[in-house]
Amino acid sequence: MNLLQDFRHGYRALLKKPAFALTAILTLALGIGANVAVFSIVNALILRPYPFPELDRLVLLRARGPNAVSEVRIAPADFLDLQRDSSVFQGLAAIRGNESNLTGTGEAETVVTATVSPNFFDLVGVPPYLGRTFAAEEGESGRDGVLVLNYGFWQRRFSGDANLLGHNLEVDGRKLTVIGIMPKDFRYPEATDVWMPLVLTPELKAERNAQAVPPPAFRVMAKLRPEISFGRAEAEVKTFAERLEQQFPDTHRGRSLGLILLRKGQYAFSAPLFLTLQVAALFVLLLATANLFNLLFARLIDRQKEMAVRTALGAGKSRLMQLFLGETLSLALIAGTIAIVASLSVVTMIRTGIPQDYTKWIAGWELIRLDSRVIVFAIMLTIAIGFLFALVAAWHSGATDLNRVLKEGSRGSASRRGFFRSALVTAQVVFAAVLLAGAALMVQGFFRLANVYK
Fold first, then answer.
1. Which residues, 6+ apart, have CB-to-CB distance to 352 below 8 Å?
2. Which residues contact 314 (CB under 8 A, 6 or more apart)?
3. Any residues with CB less than 8 A from the CB of 137 and at least 6 apart, and which?
4. Would you state the torsion angle of the CA atoms of residues 306, 311, 313, 314, taken in this order, to the nearest 10 degrees?
5. Distance from chain centroid for Cα 360
6. Spatial distance between the Cα atoms of 120 and 223, rounded to a whole number of angstroms
7. HSE on the CB side for 55, CA within 13 Å?
8. Rounded to the nearest 10 degrees, what angle do helices 267-302 and 18-42 cross at?
9. Cα separations (Å) of 42 from 5, 46, 187, 271, 321?
10. Per-residue pLDDT reduced to its tens digit, 349-380
């Protein structure tokens, strides 16, 4: 009951000081909003870049060594052996990306295609939005005349026409039947417009050279069995690679195999950039907090006599803490609400403001939004800041000499206020310098990332 009264008191106190309240709320809203917006990006691109169930069981095979031109290229015969002999994977799927010419309706267009094992969609666990995905027999030559479309491509090229299912399109001169449309958020490999079933010809099934021309090698995705740890699975594929090296020294000498979690596939590019952005946002929050501390301390010094009287009347540190908590949480919750509402527009602007030619290659970009995880982050951040301010204010009031405060005139209060402000301004200058340096590195990193994905 006392806490509810303190909340009402806190709101009334803010209304009595509208200039202070508006400045403090906007300052804190800026810091919280920047962090909410950036965490939305980090959440989508780094923590969960793919909307797949059981994402942490999906891995990619990586080849290493002098004969491994690409880390993700696995020879077809090696893939088939691992698919047959492995005891740690629930399933494996081969993936090969390409660009193709699409005709058959409207103007010809170059599209990004992916030929995948028929079990690919079952492996990632994502059902189609419309129609169906590939059947096992459609991975056989002569029965592979089907394709599945990306939702965004279907909307853009065919205006979301559901009657397209069962119709033929021409891909590189081959007539293929549209059998399914994937959900809006599904895009793997990145930027894919069209999926087609992969057919392993007898020549491919016998190929051990991942660097043959034209390149026969695949990207291989696997799903760990529920009871299998990542370490055990990686140990098995290393043993498998050692066996291949002994059996096929001409193509596998010095070549090893490893695993990487699918969600970490783009870490080398996205993590440094967007974690730097998150650090920059934290500096913005620190600057906002320093500004707010400056305002609160100035107000606290003006209220020292009030606090001294309350203490003299029997209010202990816990009661002062509760009083300050009602005031600072009121301020923080208003600022947090404004920050969350503003972040909805900011996040949308971030997601749509960069040309799709860049962002379509970044896994998770279309998933940037204020989801439940981001909202929880914003609420926790807001409450933590409110508690921090209340704790510092209660500590400062409890450490004050009551007799000295009651006897002291306004000159002493002004002197202490000037000291605190000078210290906080110095800290703000230091944080601002670091923030500017971090922002410059962030911008430089983004342009490097953009050049990589051109």
1. none
2. none
3. 118, 143
4. 150
5. 15
6. 10
7. 14
8. 160
9. 39, 5, 18, 8, 34
10. 877 777 777 777 777 777 788 877 778 877 88
